[in-house]
Every structure is written in C-alpha cells, then in structure tokens.
Amino acid sequence: MNDDALLAALGERISHLAAELIDVRRDLHAHPELSREETRTTDVVARRLDASGVSVRLMPGTGLLAEVGAPEPTHRVALRADIDALPVRERTGLDFASTTPGVTHACGHDVHTAALLGAMLALKECEAALVERGIAVRGIFQAAEEIMPGGALEAITAGALDGVDVVFAVHCDPTLDVGEVGLREGALTAACDQVAVSLHGRGGHTSRPQLTEDLTYALAKVVTDVPAVLSRRLDPRTGTALVWGTISAGRAPNVIPSTGECRGTLRMLDAQAWLTVGPLLEEIVHGVVQPYGVQAKVERVKGVPPVVNSATGIEAFRLASLAGGMHPVPTTQSLGGEDFSWYLAHTDGAMARLGTRTHGGPTFDLHQGDLVVDERSITLGARLLASVAVLRRGRTARPDDSTLEAT
Which domain holds residue 294? Predict the structure, then answer.
C-alpha cells in the first residue's frame, strides 16, 4: 500500500467513525474531570481501544498509553492528547453540557481526546501497512495538563517517550475556522509559572496608619509596581507579563490587616530568561515593600517552558494538513502555557492549532464557560494526527534543552 492509498484508507475509516467520535466527545464533555481525577475518562478511552485490539497500558493514577503498529519498529511516533477539564462553570446551554457543577471542558481537551481516539482506531485498522513500513504509533492520553508543572512530566517518567523518535499534538483554536490548521516553526507558546506574594505586618486601626505597617497599601504597591519594575529590569524581547488573578487582604473597612496576598502568573516568551528570573523577582518584591516595614514571602511554582516546534515537525504537519484536505495557515506565538513543551525538551516534534470556529460564526475564547466548538473539528483532528504519524520519516537531532528542568 503506497502513501496515497494509506492516507485514503485512514480518511475513510475516520469518516466511518465520525458519529461515534462525536458521541464520545459529548459523553466526555458531559462528564468532565479535573486534573489527576480523570478516572472515568481513562476508563472510557481504555475500554474502546481494548475492544478494537489496541494494546493499552494504564499509567499510574490516570491516563494511559496505547500502541499500534510494528512490534519491533524502525520508527516510533507518539501522538498526545490531554484529557483533563477545568474548574470553570459551563454557560453554553448545550444538550450535553457538563453535569459536574463548576467543572467543564473549556479548553477543548474533550476534542483532543476524541480525535486521538479516532486516530488510534483508524491506525489499528491499517496496522498491516504500519508493520510493512516499520512504524509504531503510541497514543499518549495524558492527565493533568492544566496544573503546573503538568502531567507530561509524570507521563514521561512512566515511559511515554521510551523509544519515541518524534511526538505530535494538536490544540483547539477557536480563532481559526474549522478546516484550518495553524502552524508555526519555533516557539508556539510561552513559559508560564504561578506566583504568590504573601505579606505580613503589624495591623491596626485605619485612623492611625502611622502606628501600623500598612499592609494593604504595601500590597497595592506589589500589585502595581512589581510588574512595572520587572518590565524595566528584563529585556523587552523576553515578552514578560506578570498578571495577578487574585488579591486578598482584610475584611473590615476600618481595620488594617496583618496579612494579605496576591496570586498570578508570570509568562515569558524567552526560555533562557525563564530559567534565571527567580532571584530577580525576589529582589524586586522585597525592594518594593521595604519602605513599609512589612515582611514578604515570594512563592514561585515553576511551570512549563515554551513549546518549540521543529522545522521537520511543522513540515510534517503541513503535508498532513494538505493530505487531509485541510488548510495550513501561519499562526503566532501566544503567552499561553502548555506542558507539551516537556516532550519537546526530549525529542523532535511539533504542536499544531486545530481550527474549531464555524465559518461565519462567533469567535470564542479558551478557558471560558461559553466555549463552543464546531464538532467537524473532531474528525479533522483525528485525520490530521493519523496522517502525520504515517507521513513523518526519519529522525532529527534532539534539542539541546537539558537545562529545562522542572522544580
């Protein structure tokens, strides 16, 4: 079977699976599970793969690895999907909306999971052609992408990349029309950390601030001045953004509290600056609060480095997009964080953005409770993943990213 015939066969099998894949996605969407709690999701995927004869190995906790193709391959491709949901209340009004209060698939991981399931089922049906080519394909259904530093590290420890030559993934993009595939060589996402600053000081009555260590005022200075100073101490080309998500201090309007904190994310486009920013952040925080006499504690949960796509990985996605009747389009680097970066610190590969917007329809945003995706993207994602697995040839040198270690 030549490449064209194999691609056609994969496309035909995925078309036959279309209705089932939509049903699976809707089932997962109605029953979302938070990071490291994806027990039902793991079971749904494992049962369907096992029923089709796909080799399945459960990972510790949640998530699984699936394998098809040559038993002693000359080339092993990994395809990854993340399976966890977010602590966000759904506001779509869909018939299959989340039945779990305060939890929903607001980042499209249900689409990723259904698409990879479809790709693995189709590849299993074409397994003879994979064996002939000496190709094995490993499906990584990964837990806990939404928490830092991400479940990818645990999957790698469990053997997800053992013997793997190249790894691919897709991510839903509601700013691209269905049928479009966003591609970018080099950095696609940003490094991302969680930051918390806790202040402690002598509180008191708001009528006598001179007798206190005015913690609320000092906290306000941390919120405004630390991002400003950081932007002047770092090269602007690092693309650094420190943004606070929560601020808390006190309960009464006439009482200066003795404790308070702010929490947010630190995002950077530059991986090397990310490796060295910790001491600078500490220095700036302590310098900002020093005039007010309060004590500061800085906690930085080191998250993920940028996703850096290889040229060969992007070319493979471009060919797979065209083979599947999709439209590869340029895309830009974002400040979002994605733990797929840990896989690319070990081996060659790429992540593509999968268009989920209905032509002429509204543009939604990820991590919002009103996110709606065009479900045609599910089979397109399955075809893209299956195609890139069989089109990729050879192996490139692994990136020299040995310094990118999680804390």
Answer: 191-304
